Amino acid sequence: MKTLGLIGAGQIGSQLARLAVARGYNVVVSNSRGPETLSTLVKELGPKARAATAIGAAQAGDIVVVTVPLKNYRQVPVAPLAGKIVIDTNNYYPERDGHIAELDNETTTTAELLQAHLPTSKVVKAFNHIHAAALTTDGQPSGSKNRRALAVAGDDQSAKAEVTNLLDEFGFDTVDAGPLKEGWRIQRDTPGYGPRRTANELRRDLAAAKRYRDQKTA
Ligand SMILES: NC(=O)c1ccc[n+]([C@@H]2O[C@H](COP(=O)([O-])OP(=O)(O)OC[C@H]3O[C@@H](n4cnc5c(N)ncnc54)[C@H](OP(=O)(O)O)[C@@H]3O)[C@@H](O)[C@H]2O)c1
Fold this sequence. Notes:
The protein has 218 residues and is of the alpha/beta class. The protein is 33% helix and 16% strand. It is built from nine helices and eight strands. Helix 1 (11-22) links the parallel strand 1 and strand 2 (26-30). NADP nicotinamide-adenine-dinucleotide phosphate is lined by residues 7-13, 30-33, 54, 67-70, 72, 75, 89-91, 128, 131-132.
């Protein structure tokens, strides 16, 4: 029995928690305001779920999801995530997150920032290009015709394989977008960001993605 830790229990975190308990995982949810503010969600999730601090969720999770507004990524606890698989769902919205120079000049990607903050964790980008509501409506059993696919990016192949298994359990095919530095191919305003895509369609979208600087000149 595995435990999924969630740092962030908003739109995406709560949906991933629902999927996880439905598949038999234990879940530990956390937010910025404290576990007592998550009692309604924990009650809904049932006996497999509990709330903790972000440190507690990081300690408890076999796999831990970071799903917070990007501007807060430096608040994610480092030591309890050492050596663990960390799923990064985060996207960059300057109007929400403020300007981050390395993202504005496209010398890095959102997940590489989190990886730099968590140097010994195995960061895998996933779940960043699906609307939260669709997480619990678009999943289908493995082998379903035209099953929806989601992209993963990561530098550690075995971590990516584990996350691929998790995605499959949650109802989705996976397309490997490559290492973290290729994660820009599925960032905001790229073709695959948002719409329902099969694996073949998503591969086509990843290949067709353009950097922001090239979108401006297109
Ligand atoms: N919404 C979507 O459809 C969607 C889809 C794909 C990806 N994303 C991305 O996924 C991330 C989360 O999105 P969301 O829509 O779920 O956001 P959200 O609904 O605003 O929820 C954010 C959660 O993060 C928590 N949080 C903030 N700072 C924290 C900290 N320092 N430590 C622990 N928890 C913290 C918040 O807790 P408090 O409420 O207590 O502050 C809240 O539970 C964002 O980067 C977003 O761009 C969103």
